[in-house]
Amino acid sequence: MRALERAAVVVAALALSFLLIALLSGFFTRRDQGALAGTAAVAGQRFRDLGDALLQPGQSAPRYDSSPPTSGPHLPEPVTRNGAELDDNQLLGALASGDVVILYGTAAPSAGLTALAAALAPSFTPALARTGGAVILARRPGAAGLIGLAWAHMLRVATADDPRLREFAAFWLGRGAPRR
Predict the structure, then answer these.
(1) Cα(10)–Cα(2) distance, rounded to whole angstroms?
(2) Closest Cα to residue 83, out of 120, 124, 116, 115?
C-alpha cells in the first residue's frame, strides 16, 4: 500500500506542476509587451509608458517624450465631440481608456478617414469614448498627413487608405493604459 500512496503523490505533484506552469505561462504571456506588439507596422512607433497618473488642478504637466504625447500624467478631461481639437489632457485620457485617436491637419477629416473610423467603431459618443471603444478623429493644426495614436504608440501615414492605419487602429482599440 505504501508504494501506491507514493505513486499517487508523485502523479498528483506532477499534474499540479504542469497545471501551474500552464496557468502562469498564460498569465505572463498576456502581460508581455512583445506578445502585444505584433509586427512593427501594426504596432507603430513605441514610446516609453509614462504612466496614467491623474494630475491635481493647478499641477503642471510633466515633459512628455513624444509630440503629441502618447502616455503620461494628465488632468481628467473627457472628449465630448469628434472632430474637435483636443488638448493634451483630453488626448491622454482618451488613450488611457483605450480609444484610438487619429489626428489630421486639414479643416475637416477626409471622407476616407471618416469611413475608416466608422468601419472600426460605432458612431462617436462621449459615453463610448469614456469606455475606450471609440476611434476619435481630432483636428491638429500643422499635422502633416495623419497621426494614429494609442497608449504609448504612434503611427504616421500620408492618407487614410494606407492599410497600416486600419491595422494600427483595429489592433490597439480597447487596449489603453495597463492597469497597475
Answers:
(1) 13
(2) 124
- Please list, residue by residue across 130-150, b when 16 or more beta carbons sit within 10 angstroms of its beta carbon and e when fewer do: eebbbbbbbbbeebeebbbbb
State how beta strands 100-104 and 146-150 pair. antiparallel
Tell me the mean pLDDT in the region 67-96: 97
Question: What per-residue confidence (pLDDT) applies to 3?
Answer: 83
Distance (Å, whole) CA 149 – CA 153: 6
Please say whether the beta carbons of 73 and 54 come within 8 A: yes
Distance CA 50, CA 177 (A): 10
Q: In this predicted model, what pLDDT tens digit does every residue of 36-64 receive, in sequence order?
A: 444 556 789 999 999 999 999 889 989 99
For the chain, how many helices (H) and strands (E)?
7, 5
